Amino acid sequence: MDEHNDCFFQIYTNGQLIDESAAKKLSDLGNAVICISVEGLKKETEARRGKGSWEKIMTAMDLLKENGVFFGYSVTAVRSNNELIVSDEFIDFFIEKGCFLGWYFNYIPTGKDPDLNLMPTPEQRDYRRRRVLEIRRTKNIIPIDFWNDGPLVHGCMAGGKNYLHINVNGDVEPCVFIHFAVDNIKDKGLTEVITSDFFKLFRKKQMQISNHLRPCCIIDNPHVLREAVAETGAYITHDGAETMVTALAKSLDEYGSKYKEIADKAWVEEYLPREEEDKVV
Fold first, then answer.
1. Do the Cβ atoms of 180 and 237 come closer than 8 Å?
2. Angstrom distances, CA of residue 44 to CA of 36, 80, 92, 113, 237
3. Using an 8 Å Cβ cutoff, are 128 and 77 in contact?
4. Are 36 and 22 in contact (CB under 8 A)?
5. Quick one: which of 16, 72, 205, 212 has the most CB atoms within 10 Å?
6. Are 90 and 41 in contact (CB under 8 A)?
7. Percent of the chain with pLDDT over 90
8. How far, in Å, CA of 163 to CA of 231, rounded?
9. What is the dihedral sign for C-alpha 62, 67, 68, 73?
10. What average pLDDT does the chain have?
11. How far apart are CA 137 and CA 177, in angstroms?
């Protein structure tokens, strides 16, 4: 990061190796926000990350705070923790720890052994959306929901619109959760990659989605991902990634349809009036 001091970085980490030396180094650099992964409070975090992981996270946060480093938490919303991670108990705890922000990532059925039963229900997802808005109004922290905050960035950012993902092998994916690619950064320049038919199709489809509360081509409009893969011959970037457009397709369509009913109502009642007011101003 010291070689790129004209850039700002967000680093996502389990926090287990952050010691006094690392905290001081980050403080001296001054161009990074550290986002430490939790699953809830101690019980939920240690259930997934192992006994003792919570205390290491707490120590890391204390060291970052003492050294004046901006930091926050990063949490995956699943069906079992969705309400806890937007509760006053959870939020107030991490404000007291010194968190500047908190990232929320809806569980997405990708990677190894995807399980749709881990996904928050459409109703739970909407509850989290409303709670995040309330937290912003009432708490001294910045919560950011990677899915529910589509209105802030005019829909999905993937496909090179504002965002893309390069995996460890160099495959250039439209999003960190979309494990398909047509190009590798080792073979082509970034400009050529983002002007590929694969990326251009994503951006074209994004422009056709008017409700920014449901912009995702994985769980909200899964037909978009299927069409992009089929029309461009995109390859999978790890074994099993194809289940998103094959075995899980029907279930994802059903989820998207159920959430559409909730999100379309919220969009019309809560967001369209605000857009019209902005136009008048």
1. yes
2. 15, 9, 17, 20, 30
3. yes
4. no
5. 72
6. yes
7. 86
8. 22
9. negative
10. 94
11. 30
Decide if pLDDT at 126 tops 90: yes
**Count of residues for the chain?**
281
For residue 167, pLDDT beyond 90: yes
178 vs 191: CA distance, rounded Å:
20
**pLDDT above 50 for 17:** yes
- pTM of the predicted model, to two decimals? 0.93
Per DSSP, the residues of the chain read -GGGTTS-EEEEE--TT--HHHHHHHHHH--EEEEEEESSSHHHHHHHH-TTHHHHHHHHHHHHHHTT--EEEEEEE-TTTTTGGGSHHHHHHHHHHT-SEEEEEE--S-SSS--GGGSPPHHHHHHHHHHHHHHHHHSSSEEEETTTTGGGTTS--TTTTS--EE-TT-BEESBTTB-EES-BTTTS-HHHHHTSHHHHHHHHHHHT---TTS--TTTTSHHHHHHHHHHHTPEESSTTGGGGTTTTHHHHHHHHHHHHHHHHHHIIIIIHHHHHHHHH-
The CA dihedral of 223, 227, 229, 232, to the nearest 10 degrees, is -160
**For residue 103, what are the β-bridge partners?**
74, 144
Structure tokens at 272: 């369209």
Nearest to 108 by CA among 263, 255, 267: 255
pLDDT confidence band for 102 (50 / 70 / 90): very high
186-231 confidence digits (pLDDT tens): 999 999 999 999 999 989 988 899 999 999 999 999 999 999 999 9
Strands 9-13 and 165-166: unpaired
- Name the CA radius of gyration of the chain, rounded: 20
Distance CA 12, CA 130 (A): 25
